[in-house]
Amino acid sequence: MNPFNYEKLEIARLLRQKTQKDVVKDVGISQSTLSKAEHGLLELSDDMMQKLSQYYDMPIEFFSEMYEVPPVGYLYYRRKLTITNKIIDSFIAKVQIFKAIIDSLMQSVELPDYTLDNYRPSEDLSPKEIAHKIRFSLKVFHGPVPNLSTLLENNGIVIVRFDFGTEKIDGVSAITNENRKVMFINSQMPDDRIRFSMAHELGHIIMHIANPPKSSEEAEREADEFATEFLMPELEIRPMLEDLTISTLATLKRRWRVSMHAIVRRAKDLEVISNQQYRNMQIYFSKKGYTKSEPIQLPIEQPTILKETLRLYKDELGYSDQDLMSIMHINKNDFAEWFAPQPKIIRLQPIFNKSI
């Protein structure tokens, strides 16, 4: 009998959005046996493992990887209540598989060292103050943060963009078994929201992975406060928020490389505009369809570490796609979906000079 990592049975099942009852009905295994196997309390025969491998459409080698499956507690993400547990569980399973893939691939790649310090938010050290410390560590002493993908990857954070299967989760930060910091960003997200999401996840990495917060709500509030100050420092942006119009919003969006929504919210939080002005702008955005797609196309900040790692394996080490699938322990369909280049659809809208 081959040794199997039975914890990965649950990962495969959740990835394919199957319940234990689905498996019992389709494969011919009792729910008690499947449940005990997923918890590592019962071994299955080689024949049953082959059946499950075929049913989940995962290579049998996937279930032979003996790495420790990390707990969900290492993951931090913004969750909206309208997302079903099935979608969330499938998404988390995909993230866990990607983390193992990254550890496997990076064995042949020398990554930049991760040198950023961890900080625990407290009464004496706010997320806003932590943001200033991280800007200083990254040598962003004033003004807008430059290409954030490049900046973070040059400081040892692996950034992965893929389709989360839902538009209601923007990003996830995690740590692999080999202690690599990884940031997952949803490719469904509009480009003008990507930088804020990356800054938000950076806040989780800096403040929460080593120091778990009391609640997810607290973690989200702190990460938002960090991201806002990191990208739009109060002392620099406040004077620019006076007398906001749609036209000045366009200028600020180009300068700070964040969405118009984020800028307006910053103005409200800093009490530069009134609650009524904020509501008027939200109504205007809604009427113009800016809630889903804003005008002003920002430069796309594409991460490169994973792409360059795959290129190195193919061009310099002579790996084929089949070789890569073998070391990743995934099938052809998943490989094509997860790692094939995804063209971006650019939607442009006119912007009007109108005061609010």
TrEMBL record:
Coiled-coil intervals: none
Domain of life: Bacteria
Residues covered by the HTH cro/C1-type domain: 9-63
PROSITE patterns: HTH_CROC1
Alphabetical list of Pfam families matching this protein: HTH_3 (PF01381), Peptidase_M78 (PF06114)
One Gene Ontology MF term: DNA binding
The family this protein is said to belong to: Belongs to the short-chain fatty acyl-CoA assimilation regulator (ScfR) family.
Protein name: ImmA/IrrE family metallo-endopeptidase
Organism of provenance: Marseilla massiliensis
Lineage: Bacteria, Pseudomonadati, Bacteroidota, Bacteroidia, Bacteroidales
